User: Fold this.
Amino acid sequence: MKVNVPTEMSVPIVCNSTCGNLLLTEQVPSLEIWKARIAMDATVTISVFNSAMSTASVQVLVIRNDGSPVEFSVPSGNTLSATVDAAESIIVFRIDTGRTEGKYFLEVCFPVICDDQRKPKKDK
Assistant:
């Protein structure tokens, strides 16, 4: 994984993973499955499986903080993945009408930078 960190700095990278089920219908045609709540740029790897029983494709939208989103469509019976840097949010949509069932796997990685203001003050 490539993380843009200044060369004079050596910082730890923290990665968290999660997975879940997707069910997109007329009542729930879209779902935000992740939103950044950290100050650092996050690199995400998102994999979406769309069941062969689905009657519609899944559109995946990764919103980036530089304004250039990454989108891809997952036809029924398939799995597609993408790794995206500077991610802010991930939204899945059902394309057209019908029922979409599937699963997703998400890994979020970000550098941890501690500065003097975040460090607890030592007692004298």
In short: DSSP finds no helices and seven strands in the chain. The first strand starts at residue 13 and ends at 24. Strands lie at 13-24, 30-35, 42-50, 58-64, 70-74, 78-94, 100-111.
